[in-house]
Design a protein that fits this description.
This protein is mainly β and about 210 residues long. Helix content is about 0%, strand content about 55%. The strands form three sheets. It has a five-stranded mixed barrel with strand order 5-6-7-10-9. The model has no long low-confidence stretch (mean pLDDT about 85).
C-alpha cells in the first residue's frame, strides 16, 4: 500500500527473487515483515530490488533477559544509564568476539554486548564481556523476606545463598517484563547477577526469574 492508499500486488518466482537489502546488508525475503516500509525498483514490470527502509543504530549494554517464542527471540538490553529496551534478534544475525565470529547461542544473560539495531531488529552482535561465575548465582527460590528485601535460594550444590534485591531490576524470562521481588513465586528458578559480599550473601544488580 503506497502513501496514497493504493494497493498493489506482486508475485515472485522463488527461483529468481529480487535483491533484498536492509541498509547495506542483503537479506532473505522472510526478513520482510507486514508493516515494513519498502522501496521497490521495477524494471520492465519486474521487481529487481527491494530496499527495507529504517534507521540503524548501535546499542551497548548488558543483556538482562533472553526470551524465545514462536515470534522469535527477544533480548532485553539495559544500557549504562539504567534504561532497558527490548529488541528482536534477527534469525540471520552474526555475532563476534573481537574479530572472531561466534555462535549467537553462546551469548547469555549477563553478558555485555554492542549490537547493531535496524528498526528494533538486532542484525549484528559484538560480545564485549561475558558474565563470570563470581558475578552470577543460580538456584531455586525458597523464601522472600519483604522487610529486609532478601531472597533465599538453594543452589544446585545444596548451598543456601541470601540475595539482597532492594536495588535489583527483576525480569521475567517468560514474558520479558519487569516484576517486583515480592511477586516472585516460591520454587521458581532464579538467576542473579551482581557480586558476593561473602560466601553466603550476594548483592544483586539484576535478577532473571525463569
Amino acid at each position: 500500500t503506497d502513501t496514497a492508499g493504493t494497493l498493489y500486488s506482486f508475485q515472485f518466482k522463488i527461483a529468481s527473487l529480487p535483491t533484498i537489502k536492509r541498509g547495506e546488508t542483503t537479506v532473505t525475503i522472510d526478513r520482510i515483515k507486514a508493516g515494513s516500509d519498502v522501496t521497490l525498483t521495477i524494471d520492465d514490470c519486474n521487481i529487481t530490488k527491494i530496499a527495507i527502509s529504517g534507521s540503524q543504530t548501535t546499542v551497548s549494554g548488558t543483556i538482562t533477559s533472553i526470551t524465545n517464542s514462536t515470534g522469535g527471540t527477544a533480548w532485553v538490553i539495559k544500557n549504562s544509564s539504567g534504561t532497558s529496551a527490548t529488541y528482536t534478534l534477527d534469525a540471520d544475525a552474526t555475532a563476534y568476539s573481537g574479530t572472531t565470529e561466534i555462535s549467537v547461542s553462546k551469548i547469555a544473560v549477563g553478558d555485555t554486548v554492542s549490537v547493531s539495531v535496524y528498526d528494533d531488529i538486532i542484525t549484528e552482535v559484538k560480545l564485549e564481556s561475558t558474565v563470570s561465575a563470581s558475578t552470577k548465582v543460580t538456584g531455586t527460590v525458597l523464601l522472600i523476606e519483604a522487610a529486609s528485601s532478601k531472597i533465599t535460594i538453594l543452589t544446585s550444590d545444596s548451598k543456601l545463598v541470601y540475595i539482597t534485591a532492594s536495588s535489583a531490576s527483576i525480569i521475567s524470562a517468560k514474558s520479558g517484563g519487569s516484576m517486583y521481588y515480592t511477586n516472585i513465586p516460591i520454587g521458581s528458578g532464579l538467576v542473579a547477577y551482581g557480586a558476593y559480599s561473602d560466601s553466603r550473601n550476594f548483592s544483586a544488580k539484576s535478577i532473571v526469574i525463569e
